[in-house]
């Protein structure tokens, strides 16, 4: 079991290495990236491409990322131990 | 934490750095559409201000429940603002800039509140 | 330039894993985060570099340090090699030495966790992680502190000071090298 896992891991590393150094461009076309980089200034009005992408092209991702942070905060509040029930009153 | 364990060097250095970190955080949030940075990074810096304040004076005098309310309101606004701009149909360049700055500021507020709540919950409520 | 920092990242990662003291490991992890944020900058990703510098070097380091401060358990192994017979005297002596150690723990805000065992010192050192081993052999009490604990010097001076008048025939060791404490 352990040996099989190690073999699998080594194969995964090898594939990763080949993908990274064997040229990712041939595997996946990056026309979308070129289009974003060429057009983001007119489309979004931002001069920082990252902001243009995460607040305009991919705003849906941003919404759910913020929701994820909110849910994790709620979870932490739920699971952290109250020292007495008066914790929230002066907290 | 007893009184003698508190470091005088740390309190003086943080007292000097405090406004600069605050300024840097606001700069990163408000210039997110021009320079590298944005709401998330600036919010994290703003919550680092609160954490360094904990290092100087570990008192429980921060109202976590109001921080929580602020965070939820900010999330509601984060959902509402893109919808609003979408429905109104923005066109001009100024509108887009206003949208970006507004969203960055909201995300910054939300992230700083969230990380502060996580930290102070962990510090004050998580008992051994 | 880039390769130097990549090698430094590997070095600090290995150091963070290999250091016996947890607090030093946290510091190494912070330095690792700082170098990795600089590497992001060299890869021309300044946004990620800012996020990594703030979160990795500041928030995570402070959070780890607070967690270490909260989780301060002081593990004490207690062995005694005395047969039954003078049990009351043994119990009194055990109570006295443990009272000394626990006084030290409350002074330093540690939580004393005492484990009574029949294993010998070498077995404990090989099999368990410990902060202090108290061995009682009749009249003599040998205390052995771990080199990985932060409080070795503190508890040595504490026991030395408190034991001065009592005449417990106390010996204090730090892992391998021995030294005599008390009269």
Mean pLDDT across all amino acids of chain C: 78
Order of helices and strands of chain C: HHHEHEHEEHEE
Q: How would the global form of chain C be characterised?
A: elongated
Percent range for helical residues of chain B? over 70%
Mean pLDDT of chain B: 85
What would you say this structure looks like, in words?
The complex is a heterotrimer of chains A (91), B (128) and C (183). Chain A has 91 residues and is mainly α. The longest helix of chain A is centred in the last third of the chain and has 21 residues, at 59-79. Chain A is built from 5 helices and no strands. In chain A, helix 3 packs across helix 4 (49-57) and helix 4 packs across helix 5 (59-79). Chain A has one domain (16-80). With 128 residues, chain B is mostly helical. In chain B, helix 1 packs antiparallel against helix 2 (39-56). The model of chain B has no long low-confidence stretch (mean pLDDT 85). Chain C is an alpha/beta fold and 183 residues long. Chain C folds into 2 domains: 2-69; 72-180, D-Maltodextrin-Binding Protein, domain 2. In chain C, 56% of the residues lie in helices and 19% in strands. Chain C has helices spanning 2-18, 22-42, 46-70, 87-107, 121-127, 152-162; strands at 73-80, 111-116, 132-137, 140-145, 170-174, 177-180. Chain C is elongated. Chain C starts with a helix and ends with a strand. The relative contact order of chain C is 0.10. Mean pLDDT of chain C is 78; it is low at 177-183. Chains in contact: A-B, B-C. Chain A binds chain B through residues 44-48, 50-52, 54-56, 59, 62-63, 66-67, 69-70, 72-73, 76-77, 80-83, 87-88, 90-91, and chain B through 32-38, 60, 63-65, 68, 71-72, 75, 78-79, 82, 93, 95-97, 99-100, 103-104, 107, 110-111, 114, 117-118, 121-122, 124-127.
């Amino acid at each position: 079991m352990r040996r099989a896992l190690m073999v699998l891991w080594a194969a995964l590393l090898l594939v990763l290495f080949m993908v990274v150094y064997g040229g990712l461009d041939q595997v996946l076309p990056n026309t979308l990236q070129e289009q974003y980089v060429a057009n983001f200034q007119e489309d979004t009005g931002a001069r920082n491409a990252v902001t243009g992408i995460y607040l305009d092209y991919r705003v849906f991702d941003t919404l759910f990322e913020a929701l994820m942070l909110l849910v994790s905060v709620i979870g932490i509040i739920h699971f952290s131990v109250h020292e007495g029930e008066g914790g929230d009153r002066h907290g | 934490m007893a009184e003698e364990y508190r470091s005088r060097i740390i309190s003086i250095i943080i007292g000097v750095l405090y406004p600069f970190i605050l300024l840097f955080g606001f700069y990163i949030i408000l210039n997110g559409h021009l320079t590298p940075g944005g709401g998330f990074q600036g919010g994290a810096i703003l919550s680092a201000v609160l954490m360094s304040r904990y290092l100087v004076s570990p008192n429980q005098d921060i109202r976590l429940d109001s921080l929580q309310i602020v965070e939820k309101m900010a999330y509601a606004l984060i959902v509402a603002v893109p919808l609003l701009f979408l429905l109104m149909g923005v066109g001009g360049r100024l509108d887009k800039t206003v949208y970006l700055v507004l969203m960055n500021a909201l995300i910054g507020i939300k992230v700083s509140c969230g990380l502060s709540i996580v930290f102070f919950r962990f510090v004050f409520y998580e008992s051994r | 330039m880039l390769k130097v920092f990549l090698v430094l990242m590997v070095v600090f990662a290995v150091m963070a894993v290999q250091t016996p003291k947890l607090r030093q490991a946290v510091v190494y992890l912070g330095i690792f985060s700082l170098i990795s944020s600089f590497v992001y900058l060299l890869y021309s990703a300044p946004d990620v570099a800012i996020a990594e510098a703030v979160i990795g070097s500041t928030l995570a380091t402070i959070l780890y340090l607070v967690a270490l401060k909260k989780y301060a358990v002081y593990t004490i192994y207690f062995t005694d090699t005395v047969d039954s017979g003078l049990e009351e005297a043994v119990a009194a002596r055990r109570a006295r030495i443990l009272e000394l150690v626990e006084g030290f723990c409350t002074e330093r805000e540690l939580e004393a966790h005492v484990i009574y065992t029949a294993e010998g010192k070498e077995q404990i050192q090989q099999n368990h992680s410990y902060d202090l081993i108290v061995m009682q052999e009749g009249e003599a009490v040998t205390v052995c502190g771990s080199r990985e604990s932060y409080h070795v010097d503190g508890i040595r001076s504490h026991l030395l000071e408190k034991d001065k008048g009592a005449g417990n025939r106390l010996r204090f060791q730090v892992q391998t090298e021995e030294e005599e404490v008390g009269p």
